């Protein structure tokens, strides 16, 4: 049915994680407004979300128009730079996750806007927060792959994340999402390593880096202290390794 399950899975994980973060941002803002008797300002949250969705689609179109134009001059160089930029962005995201309490930071900004009775400020906060997730999704998908399978996977992941976000918001019980976020963070680290290896390959193709067995046959991926050697002759990719690991850890799927 799908020509490349790896790209479908990668797109799904990226779309799910980024959309889930956006859904949690919305739920935090709406819950805070309702808790402080500012329910009338909720419509500004949804206005910001709608604007962010439009801006994300525009970003997607602009991204592929620009990458298409730049790649005409030196495709390998441009793709190598794009891979490194995406890996650096992922690094920033992961470090931010471990170094900041995003929920509390968002609540403080919202509380400040509420104290000033700035409905527009609430809408702008929702717009910027959700659009940031959209931009990250565009860059991660655009750098990793541009196949239809990855896009389909991302759309499925986004739909699932929206459903989970609605469940979290409507549920009276607290749902622990640490396992989901920890697992997707591990994937992001591996995906960043994969992008670094692709960048090294592209730079090697145009002579910026010396061609060697490590660059042409197996990529040594040193990232966040992880040394991972992947040999192309065995047809193994990071996404395959990650999905195989999840399959092995899932009860009832490993023959136990």
Brief digest:
The protein is mainly alpha-helical and 256 residues long. 75% of the residues lie in helices and 5% in strands. The chain contains nine helices and two strands.
Can you characterise this structure?
- The structure is a single chain.
- With 256 residues, the chain is mainly α.
- It has a domain at 5-181.
- The chain is 75% helix and 5% strand.
- The chain contains nine helices and two strands.
- It has helices spanning 5-35, 42-70, 75-99, 102-115, 119-144, 148-170, 178-205, 213-216, 238-249; strands spanning 218-223, 226-231.
- A two-stranded antiparallel sheet has the order 1-2.
- Mean pLDDT is 72; it is low at 213-256.
- The chain crosses the membrane at residues 12-33, 45-68, 80-98, 119-144, 150-169, 181-200, 212-230.
- This is Putative iron permease FTR1 family protein.
- One of its GO terms (molecular function) is ferrous iron transmembrane transporter activity.
- Belongs to the oxidase-dependent Fe transporter (OFeT) (TC 9.A.10.1) family.
- It is a multi-pass membrane protein.
Task: Give me the count of strands.
Answer: 2
Outline:
elongated
For the record, give the distance between the C-alpha atoms at the N and C termini, rounded to a whole number.
Answer: 28 Å
Task: Please state the structural category.
Answer: mainly alpha
Strand order of the largest sheet: 1-2
Mean pLDDT score: 72
